[in-house]
Design goal:
This protein is an alpha/beta fold and 340 residues long. The chain has 14 helices and 10 strands. The longest helix has 16 residues, at 320-335.
Length: 340
């Protein structure tokens, strides 16, 4: 097992974390079993959010009686101090704890600071003074806002998308966090399902001594992939380097990361799946999309009126209507029997 310090917090955990968004989709019994197996296999860092429906509650059921054994990070999407306190108290109750290790502002469009009109940062300082949170974190999908948070010196951790598909801009963000003594939490470490080789993903990410990847885990077989990486940390071999380079050639550029911040669509289009359907079909079991439900979902793309709402909300600045159109065309060609 490889231990890592979370920035300057003094928290030391295994350098493989558990992203608890996907456990919304499974039963409480399944989630508790999965979370306990993750802990038994060496995972110590668990990331959830108030916005992840019952994820916090499931973590509470799994770890409420062994709270001191794990590090828990959660998030608030509150826009003001009143919302902050409401979210925090709800999270504490559901997680069955009297404190949260890292409490993060969840993808705000701005960087909360002391004395600003939102009152968010001041509320976080007060919660820290009361012992309800230990450290203040920041998550984002906008690199300019993330960079401002790092440069501010106000935050203990940054959570940002990071994988072997990342660019020099993201690498620079990781380096900036190291220089500031901030922990870097790598979300989208599998790029929303486009990266399918857990060994390659883990070998690439764990080279960075200030980065904790949080793997989105829903199934036992997914957990098994990462527990193997903990038991025997993979080296970045020449073979894996070649694989990664081929993956980068296939996937780099303007592609949908599946974050979902473009949603909801006024026409009912599932944008964060439809805008990357052709890539998913090349990398995941085709049955996931080429069934009646998947076909009906993709055909909704024809209802797009190009209102531009999705593009305006995309944190990556993508031309989302154009991506939808191209993926719809590719999908229909695949349905017609043309090769992938």
């Amino acid at each position: 097992m490889a231990k890592i310090a979370v920035g300057s917090t003094g928290i030391i955990v295994e350098q493989n974390g558990f992203g608890a968004l996907p456990i919304q989709r499974i039963s409480d019994e399944e989630a508790v079993k999965l979370l306990r197996r993750a802990y038994d296999g060496g995972i110590e860092y668990y990331d959830t959010a108030r916005a992840y429906t019952d994820s916090e509650e499931k973590l509470g059921h799994a770890f409420g009686d062994m709270r001191d054994k794990v590090t828990i990070a959660t998030k608030t999407m509150a826009q003001d101090a009143n919302g902050f306190w409401s979210d925090l108290e709800t999270s504490l109750k559901l997680l069955k704890t009297n404190h949260i290790d890292i409490y993060q502002f969840h993808n705000p469009a701005f960087c909360p600071k002391p004395g600003d009109e939102s009152g968010l940062y001041d509320a976080a300082l007060e919660a820290k003074r009361q012992g309800k949170i230990r450290f203040i974190g920041f998550t984002n999908h906008r690199i300019d806002v993330a960079r401002e948070a790092v440069e501010s010196g106000l935050y203990d951790t940054l959570q940002f998308p990071f994988s072997y598909l990342s660019t020099e801009k993201e690498l620079g963000l990781v380096d900036a966090c190291r220089k500031k003594g901030m922990g870097f939490i790598a979300m989208k470490a599998l790029s929303g399902g486009l990266i399918t080789n857990a060994e390659a993903a883990c070998a690439w990410l764990t080279r960075f001594d200030n980065v904790i990847p949080i793997w989105g885990i829903q199934r036992e077989r997914e957990l098994d992939d990462f527990l193997k990486c903990i038991a025997k940390p993979p080296a970045l071999t020449d073979e894996l380097k070649t694989f990664i380079e081929e993956d980068r050639k296939a996937l780099m550029g303007d592609f949908c990361r599946g974050c979902g911040y473009c949603m909801p669509c006024p026409q009912g289009i599932v944008i964060n799946t439809c805008a990357r359907a052709s890539l998913l079909l090349r990398r995941a079991p085709k049955e996931m999309l080429l069934n009646d439900d998947g076909i009906a979902m993709m055909k909704k793309v024809a209802d797009c009126i190009e209102c531009g709402q999705c593009a305006a909300k995309c944190p990556y600045g993508l031309d989302t209507p154009a991506l939808l159109k191209q993926n719809y065309q590719d999908f229909m060609e695949i349905l017609d029997g043309k090769p992938l």
